[in-house]
Amino acid sequence: MPSPETVAAVRAAITPAAMRGHVARISGIDPLVEGDPLKVRSRDAASPDNALVVSALARRLHDLGLTVRRHEFSWRGRRLSNVEAEFPVAAADSAVLITAHLDSTAARGEFFDSSGRPRPYDPALDPAPGADDDGSGTAAVLATAECLSAMIAEGRAPARTIRFVLFNAEEQGLVGSKAYARAAAAAGDRIVGVLQMDMIAGFQGGTPTMEIHTGSSVPGPVVGASDALGGLVAQAAPAVAADFSLQALAGSGDPAAGRSDHASFHERGWAAAAVCENFFDDTAPATGTRQYHMPGDTLLDEDHDTDYAAAIARTVAAAALTLAGL
Length: 326
Ligand SMILES: [Zn+2]
Description:
Elements: H1 4-13, H2 16-26, H3 49-63, E1 67-75, E2 78-87, E3 95-101, E4 111-112, E5 118-119, H4 131-153, E6 161-167, H5 175-186, E7 191-197, E8 209-213, H6 221-240, E9 245-249, H7 262-266, E10 272-276, H8 306-323
Parallel strand pairs: 3-6, 3-7, 7-10, 8-9
Antiparallel strand pairs: 1-2, 2-6, 4-5, 8-10
The structure holds zinc ion.
Zinc ion is lined by residues 101, 133-134, 170, 198-199.
């Protein structure tokens, strides 16, 4: 269970206003960088704005006092980067990863040429704001980093290394996280758990529901370890998201198995969970976004709810920081 001090820190740092500010900057509502008028059109891996967002996110995390590293990989002849920001703890037994994906897509949108005929999505040029997918998860990672930074400034000290990682090219087949997990395994990294947030702002109304996905087709100890990690998230929820209904989706039948970056860590045998809005569970009408992979996935969309997103972000942050010994 999260300590009262951690709950207080999480509540102070991970607010709807903080979430809204981060999403606004990376999804084209506000300028990406203060003092520069450029607004992000798309974070698609094929968009020229993708690299600008990588730089802005790296700078923001660096300014929080974290050790930032760009993890580069190749995709279709391009060099893309994941962004990693670490608070290292000497002699720690392992690291806790708090993650999301920074890229976007609008591949389900309808687009028309100059004579009004339907044409395919152009990933280099068309708008793909991805405010929910996964601007919301990216904002949550940034807000959690701000929370940690404030806790460190107050003299708190984690027992485990904490890493914030923003993956690129998730929408292209988990490309960035697969490259990251492969490199982490080759480097002999010890990772106690990966908490991925992917789409946490879509809420049409009704009972707020949080889905906790730990399912995987990968057999072995990773199954129980991932389920236990999901249990930590569920345990943290009452303190910071009291009105939420929780849905734990586990096993190989989990509809999100293999569908977000947590899967890249399952493949390497590491415990991982993905937390999201009510989107993948088909036992009841979904309350998540109706703008999935469309140009209408904006901060101003009626399904985008920053109060809801902040509550999920607080839950995951509380679980992650507790796992890190705070
Ligand atoms: Zn996503």
